[in-house]
Design a protein that fits this description.
Number of strands: 36
Largest sheet: 7 strands, mixed
Bound molecules: nicotinamide-adenine-dinucleotide
CATH architecture of the largest domain: 5-stranded Propeller
Strand content: 15-25%
CATH class of the largest domain: Alpha Beta
Shape: elongated
CATH superfamily of the largest domain: L-arginine/glycine Amidinotransferase, Chain A
Mean pLDDT: 91
Oligomer: single chain
Helix content: 25-40%
Strand order of the largest sheet: 21-26-24-25-23-22-27
Radius of gyration: 33 Å
Low-confidence stretches: 449-463
Structural class: alpha/beta
Number of domains: 4
CATH topology of the largest domain: L-arginine/glycine Amidinotransferase, Chain A
Number of helices: 22
Length: 700
């Protein structure tokens, strides 16, 4: 027996499940048996007394959970950080525990009033004393960790809990003597699991399965080589015994009804100090500023959700709500993250939402030099579709050539910034790294405009026929408007347009002057010409809808013939190709670019098999576009979406809702998704345009 270890317990005189603050309490209000609880607690007390000195804190009426002394606070040496409970239901326990610590000679530290930290329930020392594992996500805030590091002069390793059944770190994680660790990995996010694996060698990790986890096997009291727990499977018991532990099982079913077991019912109050360990915490915090229609445009929600989803935490420092209809709101939010890497991930996405990192003075963007052509320095800022500015020599400079997935090259002498693809980076160029001094400038739409001018008034995921008709009506109206204003519309199209009978309608659109550029691949051109030269599309008779004998060879014959002509244009000029989408492009002098792919037959002489060249052709045709119609080609539409900055209207038509959602995920103001058959869509569009045109001619 080791009598050096002292453990604090609280008799269950007032214990009951009086409220629900975790999933285990659900359905268990007043369902625990008082007698059984007393008996089980006594058994645990006896089991621990065999190996340690047990001290008691007097139970208080009205604080039924005080029995769970693990949440009294966190102790190291003669210092105690008293808990700040997250739920008001438990906050009444704080003064009792504080009084006990003070009465027993501890120097007590108290966190700010609204900064939750639930003691040793969420903070467990590595049993070798090397560092403190600290949990956050449900009860304790990440922002409490730097206080622990400073006050206790220890290293704090933050772990994020993600399964609400394991709401405290000690419900799923138990450091054991000898550097062993008993834990349930699915209770943690991926980053935390990585951290655990980096710190604890594989042979010391004792991973448990769900059945043991829900029996609170991790909620164990470890005293030297003894592990006291509620219940274990035979297999886990054997694994623990194999590495030298003695398992003592003592049923605690009455306490499980409140979401606690052995460890929750105890607090070790003489944690030894290791002199060589000193304060260290990787938690980073910074303040961001948000401005705009933060509530009704959902920006505030999105910002706070993404901070938590990526693994950080936040505190809204101030929020000024715009009072007038037209006024905007602004907010300062403190963001904390368990590491620099996670902070960067969070900041990148917040910048996309329009947030600005708020420092005493606005810092210039950090840059690093390109040392190898076509390769950026690590840690470069990856661009988005949103207009971006970077801080250079204390001035905001607008980034030119905005597109997604590029790097920003700045020239401080000319005060310029350009969005560049990795392959275009040259040695010596200065690339923006990190997230400092970068902001995106999103247009703040007025409330009135948002109501009436929203392009996607139907939103993505349109399905019913009537709704498709309504969307088509609006698209027709937009197309007409752009044509009148001599604007530019680009179509990206896949071969399905032809297979579904939409070729004639697309030809009509081009002929009537609604289309100013066509982007596609080998297939759209091949199948369009196959249809117009041989009456089939992929060998299927387009009039009868049945396969033609030997028809599968048709498209190859067409490719071969066009190859003989040398180009589609030559075939049109020679009078060989007389109708169809490609014919109209040539006739109307509409630029087109056919980007090659690995599955292309032939290819056609016009198909650009040098993909870098094809991307450049696409980009140049897209320049100055007002609207892009993306018709059933996932490959080309995604390519186009990536090279198009925000602010350009997009219509994505596809039968697969997932493709539509992906492509129209640019904010509702500028993109609309239509889930329907592309042939049907084009035919409705032509009907609508005809209707609009005849209405106009009637009124003239
Ligand atoms: N013979 C050839 O040379 C040949 C043939 C086919 C494809 N390809 C090439 O392969 C690449 C990819 O081709 P892709 O663009 O056809 O394929 P893709 O998979 O990128 O896109 C096809 C899209 O059409 C959608 N779709 C299917 N039926 C639809 C319908 N009835 N209405 C609306 N949407 C519908 C699908 O959901 C899908 O998103 C291209 O480069 C293309 O040129 C070449």
């Amino acid at each position: 027996m080791s009598n050096t270890i002292r453990i604090l317990m609280c008799p269950p005189d007032h214990y009951d499940v009086d409220y629900v603050i975790n999933p285990w309490m659900e359905g268990n209000i007043h369902k625990s048996s008082k007698d059984r609880a007393v008996e089980q607690w006594q058994n645990l007390h006896n089991a621990i007394k065999d190996h340690a000195i047990v001290e008691l804190v007097a139970p208080a009426k009205g604080s039924p959970d005080m029995v769970f002394t693990a949440n009294a606070g966190l102790v190291l040496g003669d210092k105690a950080v008293v808990s700040r409970f997250y739920h008001p239901e438990r906050q009444g326990e704080e003064p009792y525990f504080k009084a006990w610590f003070e009465g027993n000679g501890f120097t007590v530290y108290e966190l700010p009033k609204d900064l939750p930290f639930e003691g040793a329930g969420d903070a467990l020392f590595d049993r070798e004393g090397r560092w403190l594992w600290a949990g956050y996500g449900f009860r304790s805030e990440l922002d409490s960790h730097p206080y622990l590091a400073e006050w206790l002069d220890t290293e704090v390793v933050s772990l994020r809990l993600i399964d609400e059944r394991f709401y405290h770190l000690d419900t799923c994680f138990c450091p054991l003597s000898g550097g062993y660790l008993l834990y349930y990995p699915p209770a943690f996010d991926a980053y935390s699991n990585q951290i655990i694996e980096m710190r604890v060698p594989e042979e010391k990790r004792i991973i448990i399965d769900e059945p043991d986890a829900v029996n609170f096997a991790c909620n164990s009291v470890n005293i030297n080589s003894v592990v006291v727990m509620n219940k274990t499977s035979v297999e886990l018991k054997q694994r623990l015994e194999k590495v030298g532990f003695t398992v003592v099982q003592t049923t605690l079913s009455e306490f499980l009804k409140a979401g606690g077991a052995a460890k929750c019912l105890t607090l070790r109050v003489n944690e030894p100090i290791r002199e060589e360990v000193h304060a260290n915490v990787s938690v980073e915090s910074r303040v961001i500023h948000l401005e705009g229609h933060l509530l009704d445009a959902g920006i505030m929600n999105q910002a706070l959700d993404l901070i938590v989803e990526i693994g950080g935490s936040f505190r809204v420092l101030n929020f000024n709500l715009g009072i007038e209809r037209q006024s905007v709101s602004n907010a300062d939010v403190r963001v904390s993250a368990p590491s620099h890497q996670i902070m960067e991930d969070i900041m990148t996405q917040l910048i996309e939402l329009g947030a600005l990192s708020k420092t005493e003075e606005i810092l210039n963007a950090k840059t690093e030099t390109v040392t190898m052509a076509g390769v950026s320095p690590d840690d470069f800022y990856v661009t988005t579709i949103y207009p971006t500015e970077v801080r250079v020599n204390d001035q905001w400079v607008k980034v030119q050539g905005q597109r997604m997935d590029g790097a920003i090259v700045v020239d401080p002498t000319t005060l310029t910034a350009d969005c560049k693809l990795l392959r275009d980076l040259r040695v010596g160029e200065q690339v923006v790294v990190d997230v400092e001094g970068i902001r995106t400038t999103r247009k703040v739409e007025s409330r009135d405009k948002r109501g009436t001018q929203e392009f996607s008034f139907m939103g993505a995921g349109v399905s019913s026929e009537r709704r498709v008709e309504l969307v088509v009506e609006q698209i027709a109206w937009e197309l007409r408007k752009i044509k009148e204003q001599k604007g530019k519309v680009i179509v990206t199209a896949g071969p399905v347009v032809i297979h579904t009978g939409g070729g004639q309608h697309l030809s009509h659109l081009i002929r009537a002057g609604y289309v100013h550029g066509l982007l596609g691949g080998n297939a759209i051109a091949v199948h369009d010409m196959e249809q117009n030269l041989m009456g089939t599309s992929l060998g299927v008779d387009m009039k009868k809808g049945i396969p033609v004998r030997g028809g599968h060879r048709h498209h190859l014959k067409v490719i071969n013939t066009i190859r003989r002509f040398g180009s589609i244009k030559n075939a049109v000029e020679a009078g060989y190709l007389t109708k169809g989408v490609m014919y109209e492009c040539v006739k109307q002098n509409i630029p087109f670019s056919l980007a090659g792919s690995i599955r292309d037959d032939g290819p056609l002489p016009d198909t650009q098999m040098d993909l870098i060249k094809a991307q450049q052709d696409y980009a140049s045709i897209l320049e100055g576009t007002d609207m892009i119609l993306m018709l059933s080609s996932m490959l080309h539409s995604i390519g186009v979406g990536n090279m198009t900055p925000a602010g350009i209207k997009m219509v994505c038509v596809d039968i697969n809702p997932a493709v539509v959602t992906k492509l129209s995920d640019r904010g509702s103001v500028e993109s609309v998704g239509v889930v329907t058959d592309v042939g049907l869509f084009l035919s409705l569009l032509i009907q609508q345009l005809d209707k609009l045109n005849s209405a106009v001619s009637l009124t003239v």
